[in-house]
Amino acid sequence: MKLSFVLVSPARAANVGAAARAIKTQGFSELIVVNSQAHREEEATWVACGAEDILTNIREVASLEELREEFELMVATTARERGSPRHYLSPAELGEQLSHQQEQLKRTAIVFGCEASGLSNADLAICDLLSYVPLATEYPSLNLAQAVMVYSYALGQALACADGNLGLKDAQSPLPQLSALKQKAATLLERVDAADDAKLSLWLNESLSRLSDRDAKMAHQLLGDILKKLT
Questions:
Q1: pLDDT tens, 88-114?
Q2: For the range 16-19, what are the long-range contacts, defined as Cβ-Cβ under 8 Å and sequence gap of 24 or more?
Q3: Residue 198 in contact with residue 93, Cβ under 8 Å?
Q4: pLDDT digits over 154-173, tens only?
Q5: Alpha helix (H) ranges present in 63-143?
Q6: Most CB within 10 Å of its CB: which of 137, 141, 178, 199?
Q7: Where does it localize (predicted)?
């Protein structure tokens, strides 16, 4: 599995530089910036301090949606919303989950919002899972660079314990990819005339995104058998 870190509309060059430094210290290499030129400012290079190569190789895209087809799994980092039906994973829980998904996932993106307002509802909807950092108090909250450090450390440690490669290598696996599993589920919803049920689709997508490699393989078989019966 290869992990990429995505910053959506970062405003401060110092935060981008610090994020680059954070991911490099944990063995990661890809930083993607959405709709921002902050990383081109000199301050970003000053703060990166040893991670200038990460800044030089930053990928720029205009919108988060452009990345959707690249990644089997996209995880949005956000504040936990009380009363929300969505499931929120802590960095430790996310690391544990990813350590059991390495065969089915080739590429995973961890997505961070801008400093002032975080991720928009539209960007949250693009992502498969939500994650948050549990805090002892609501304020002060972590800034962007601090959040990137927390996730890069937690995920780096979890993946290193699982396979020793810090999640840097693409998985070479006979298992179908998560995207294929989601497509089977979408086809099944269409067959039973439930494709327009937004809540069901969201729940199903989120649940499939949390399956371990073993459970994903079983789900592929089960959905395949059901679809055959409906043909």
A1: 999 999 999 999 898 888 899 999 999
A2: 16/44, 16/55, 16/58, 17/43, 17/44, 17/45, 17/46, 17/47, 17/48, 17/49, 17/51, 17/55, 18/47, 18/48, 18/145, 18/148, 18/149, 19/112, 19/144, 19/145, 19/148, 19/149
A3: no
A4: 999 998 876 654 444 444 44
A5: 91-99, 121-126
A6: 178
A7: Cytoplasm
Q: What separation, in Å, do the N-terminal and C-terminal C-alpha atoms of the chain show? A: 34
Laid out side by side, the sheet with 129-131 consists of 59-61, 30-34, 2-8, 107-112, 73-77, 129-131, 88-89
Q: Does residue 57 have a pLDDT over 70?
A: yes
The domain spans of the chain are 2-163, 178-230
C-alpha–C-alpha distance, residues 98 and 212, integer Å: 8
Type of residue found at 107: R
Q: Which amino acid is at 48?
A: A
Rg of the chain's alpha carbons, rounded to an integer? 18
What CATH number has the domain spanning 2-163? 3.40.1280.10
Q: Which two tokens stand for residue 43?
A: 């301050």
The amino acid sitting at 173 is S
